[in-house]
Design a protein that fits this description.
The chain has 422 residues and is of the alpha/beta class. The protein has 2 domains: 234 residues, TIM Barrel (Alpha-Beta Barrel); 122 residues, Lyase, Ornithine Decarboxylase, Chain A, domain 1 (Beta Barrel), CATH 2.40.37.10. Helix content is 26%, strand content 22%. The strands form 2 sheets. Strands 1, 11, 12, 13, 14, 15, 16 and 17 form an 8-stranded mixed β-sheet that branches. The protein has an 8-stranded parallel β-barrel with strand order 2-3-4-5-6-8-9-10, surrounded by 4 helices. Helix 8 runs parallel beside helix 9. The termini are far apart. 47% of the residues are buried. The structure holds pyridoxal-5'-phosphate. Pyridoxal-5'-phosphate binds next to strand 10 and helix 10.
Length: 422
């Protein structure tokens, strides 16, 4: 891969570099950890960069999408519409219609209301949607149809399903053809992941048998872990394939003939390690004894979710380009960005050597939920430059832009009746 310093010199900072060969390698590695012949969907929300998505398509992935923007990304990246699965808890009638018209057939449904909306949109588009019912929680370790896991807006609760199995009866425009699970994310402990996924296999077989559900396809979701803005390697899953195949052989013995077909999903495992954010040190200062290193990038470009304290306490690790291991100096710093908010912290306590303005730093493993999960509109700063790099060294740099556009009123207010509009 072309050197980060050369790329920063050529394009400037802040700069996201996506190593496409690494994304390919991740897809190969994850596929080799999964049951033979299983389909793997790339969850576009992790990184909707068109060339990252295209690389994963060429590596044999389908795409899991959840908005018309992601549909556009997936189609532009060359995914055939039949390799897309449309998911999410609030699909509107117009987006379902647009997706169906674009050729999407496979939808995941979250509720009876959502199911009827899918059916209506599909019918209007003149197609028959194949719908997977997303199941909330799993019956981990349980023999019966007991639901565990917390309350959430995702999926249909198992108890509601057993109480009213007819809620998803085929209607014009949609038929229920399988089940979808996605109850965990970022599970680095292999035993816990195996437990979760094999429970989902067992639960699916049980739901099919007891409730007479169709099970032509089974999407087991994922939960595959990856590092986020720190240097650690992703966990290995050496037993996963064998254990999953055993559970499938036991509970759904025809799965090897595609009955049901088996699918998985991943965003972070496929893209986390391909991305590096390169930034410039703008300022170094002391505040009440603490050293602050101020970068030209912050939560507008990286980890906006953690920046608002919603998900993870920020703790990015920096590599200073052209310097030895930052930990060797023993120096620590608070690493912040350029935004006018105290929330713009990338790490409260990072190993950072004695940097000076102009030094370049790299934050590794930010190819997933880096830019895509950030507060890109806050403070109206430019987006970072993004540059995919492939093994031949070819680069095509670009940058997203937020633009305001006029929106026509839905209804013209009539004279003296302005209140109607609201
Ligand atoms: C976000 C999401 C994923 C991807 O999650 P990762 O942790 O990035 O693998 C997969 N499936 C669904 C339904 C999701 O919402």
């Amino acid at each position: 891969m072309t050197g980060l310093r050369e790329l920063a010199a050529a394009f400037g900072t802040p700069l996201y570099v996506y190593d496409l060969a690494e994304a390919r390698r991740c897809a190969e590695e994850l596929r080799s950890d999964l049951p033979a012949g299983a389909k793997l969907f790339y969850s576009v929300k992790a990184n909707p960069h068109p060339e990252v998505a295209e690389t994963l398509r060429l590596s044999g992935c389908g795409a899991e999408i959840s908005s018309l923007g992601e549909l556009e990304v997936a189609l532009a990246a060359g995914f055939p519409a039949e390799d897309l699965m449309y998911t999410g808890p609030a699909k509107t009638a117009s987006e379902i219609l647009a997706a169906a018209r674009a050729g999407v057939r496979s939808f995941s449904t979250e509720s009876p209301i959502d199911f009827r909306r899918i059916a209506a949109g599909a019918e209007q588009a003149g197609i028959e949607a194949e719908v997977l019912l997303r199941v909330a929680g799993t019956a981990r370790g349980a023999s019966g149809l007991r639901m565990t896991g917390g309350a959430s807006q995702f999926g249909h609760p198992i108890d509601a399903l057993t109480a009213d199995p007819g809620a998803f009866q085929d209607i014009k425009g949609a038929s229920l053809t399988g089940l979808h699970h996605f109850s965990v994310s970022n599970v680095s402990d292999e035993s816990a992941l195996i437990d979760e996924l094999t429970s989902a296999v067992r639960l699916s077989a049980e739901l099919r048998d007891r409730l007479g559900l169709q099970l032509r396809s089974l999407d087991l979701g994922g939960g595959f872990a990856a590092p986020y803005a720190i240097g650690t390697a992703p966990p290995a899953y050496p037993r996963l394939k064998t254990e999953l195949e055993q559970a499938l052989d036991e509970c759904l013995p025809a799965w090897r003939r595609g009955d049901p077909s088996i699918a998985f999903e991943s965003g972070r495992r496929l893209t986390a390690t391909c991305g590096t954010l390169v930034a410039e040190v703008m300022d170094v200062k002391l505040s009440q004894g603490a050293r602050y290193v101020v970068l030209d990038t912050g939560i507008n470009h990286l980890g906006g979710l953690s920046g608002t304290g919603r998900m993870m306490r920020p703790k990015v690790e920096l590599t200073v380009l052209g310097r030895p291991d930052p930990a060797a100096s023993g120096l620590r710093a608070v690493v912040t960005g350029p935004l006018c908010t105290p929330a713009d912290v990338l790490s409260f306590d990072a190993a950072v050597p004695d940097v000076v303005p102009g030094d370049l730093v790299a934050i590794r493993n930010v190819g997933a939920y880096g830019l895509s999960a950030s507060l890109t509109g806050f403070l109206s700063r430019p987006m970072p430059i993004e540059v995919p790099v492939d093994s031949s060294g070819a680069v095509r740099a670009g940058r997203l832009r937020l633009r305001r556009e006029p929106v026509a009123m839905r209804y013209e207010p009539r004279e003296g009746q302005h209140d109607d509009v609201y």
